[in-house]
User: Fold these one by one.
Assistant:
Number 1:
Amino acid sequence: MLSRRLNNVTPSFTIGISNKVSELKSKGIEVVNLSIGEPDFNVPDKAKNEAIKAINNNKTKYAMVSGIKELKNAIVEKLKNENNVHYDIDEIVVSNGAKHSITNTLIAILNPQDEVLIPKPYWVSYPEMIRLVDATPIFIDTDKNNNFKITPEQIQKNITAKTKMIFITNPSNPTGAIYTKEELKSIVDICLKNNIYILADEIYEKICYKDNFTSIASLSPEAKNITITINGFSKSAAMTGLRLGYSASNKSIAKAISTIQGHLVSHPSTISQWAGYGSLKYCKEDINNMVKIYKQKRDLAISILSKIKDLDFIYPQGAFYIFIDISKLKSKINYKNSFSIEFCNKLLENNKVAAVPGIAFGMDDFIRISYACSEENIIKGLNEIKNFIETL
């Protein structure tokens, strides 16, 4: 018999969409895929070179559980210079992707029945990760007029004696919204008053179109002490397949995370770690150029979307997604359970465009598209969405 934990876990909507796209492509059907959350760039050459050098120099043996010291030192330097937060090397744990860093954190901190606050919309895997460690996700409704950013008042209403942690995703997947320094300070204040940990998912921090990005841990020593910062290399350096992320936290949490990781997976691939080291040390210009191109693609997508009748959207300031409000079309789609799933299924079936249904993020009146694709696909995909809506 399988574990009872699986009874409460929902399969990934995004993987389900990818499977449908793959099935159509296997039949020779061309699909414009606006669903994928993956950079349309390759790993920068200088990062690749560090990985190749590591292979040629036989750096393929067991290493420190928490990561090779060269990479951890580079992360410490990055956090100090770019994020204005000072960590010691033993407060950094490198893991097999940011997902793994989050999972390690949840295992380290949460007990069964502890509650974790999750603002809606949320990234698809958060609730399932929490359930897998026998804790309870508590979903908080946010306001579209505030770009779905959580407020202290909304947090306060949902705090109970069981509340242990809150997830803050900044920049947001799926909305691309970014919190201001003042907004983050008010969140930290209420978390400090109520002894709540902050899991700060900052995986998209490099893909930011504002001048200033604020890391929560940089706000004060007290903020740093309750914050577990999650970051990685999948989005900033296009290293999705190399599976490399990291957490930065206080010493006791970092030690616990390292202990857990040592028993479960030992450590991340040494070769991936050397690629990550190369991206931090030598690829700043490549990353800046990537962000510049994403901004151009965002502007292109918005210029087209703004002209499509009956659609509204959150104006993204970061990441590479647009969260589109399709609620005005609800009366035109026959559906049984989920409006957004039916909308996306019909869009894929009729117009061969893949998008992610908003129910995956807890918001069934929305869909998410990604502009991490060619400009040709952005134009074609959005025009097909327009054509699809006109036929309803």
Number 2:
Amino acid sequence: MPEHFSCRLISVLLTAFILATLYWKLNDSPKGTQGQLSFLRNCLQCLSPLAYFLAHSLVSIPNLIILSLAFSATTFWAVGLHGGLSGFFFFFIIIFTSFWAATAYIAFATGFVSDSIVAFTIVVSTFGYFSLYSGFYIACQEIPPFWIWFHYPSLVKYPYQAVLQSEYEDPAECFVRGVQVLDNTPFVNLPVAVKLNMLQCMSSATGANITSSTCVIDGMKLMEQEGVTDIS
């Protein structure tokens, strides 16, 4: 029904608009990088409840394509993600497959339960577990061995790792340089001269020459911190 699709499109665009304005034009500084990571987490988390809403009307693939394109176009350039048109296309594909996988899972789960309230509870609960064990809140290497199995069937793990690799795999990109290593510490408000002295002390302690232009964290190190190293 056209009115149903219009309602779904408005819902997707509203979510995209909120995320786009909340994370507007982030840069490659430590603060901007943390904002990008937060956006990518929230982006995929917001798609799960939207997918439940979409699945109720047996959304067709053409509709999913339009909705995914609307969401991607609203957020990709507004947030300041990298990759140009090829990066945008990859982001769109990930958003589309996330919608598709979520709606397929919902259709699968609700096929076993006739009561809509019970089905909703099951779906919301399992999506919560998927997010919890996807790597958002706790790194893969820190998940207890008796729960690590839930990390791998998570519907959120794979799109999350895909967008992180697309965003941070360029070895030429640097996300923390020189004194920026102190940006997310209690020393962030110290004078620059003091920070440079601290870098000299760090150089002496580590045996590495860390200057104001030295790249401290590149994309690969950032993905290692996020635990995004187990799939290509």
Number 3:
Amino acid sequence: MPQYEVVGDDIQYVKVYLNPGEKIYGDAGHVVMKSDSTQMQTRMRGGFFAGIKREITGGSFFVTEFQGPGEVVFAGIFPGKIIGLPLAGNGILAQSHTFLFAEDGINYDEKMAKLTAGLFGGEGLFLAHFYGAGNVFIHSYGGLYVKNLQPGEVIQVEASHLMAMDDGMQYSIQRVGGLRSILFAHEGLFFVRIEGPGRVWIHTLTIEQLAQEIAGYIGGGTGTGGQQGGPGINVGGIDINL
């Protein structure tokens, strides 16, 4: 089976060592390098409708397959942690943007989320669904916190900080705070209520938070270091006023 090595601390990358004939597939936007001997091709994995569903969630319509022998290196787009999750017939639900790559035995599909969680959590109406036998690698934005819930144990996760959870867990959306919070708060309005048993992966940074801080330091947006107004740029799909 493929061998893996995660390198780094706050800014990580992962090396994948493929033997002849071994395959993985992933998001080409996260590929740093590959060996000349490693074959690469773009595929519509799972068929046309699976590709459409991935596109709806913010994932890629096509995936890129790599076949050994050789080495492939993947990295996240923000500082954070890379984790490999071994699946043996079970599955996980995850934000599509956190996906790096998976072994050939892992199926990559989408699963309908709770309608309100999709609308208010900012991740569309679907979540990425990985299941099968093998390893799938995902990356967090910022720090990574893993919570292992016992049967009946409940936590509330701010919607945009939910990275992944075990398939089959019970969850729903909850609004926290009244009119004052809705008018003046920028985070914490909607929490995902998740009930155990199962594992939940939470990342401490969101794209929106990062974009706001960058905007502040370069003279625009609502970050801590800047003023409103001026022309704009786009960071990670987020429009920033300069």
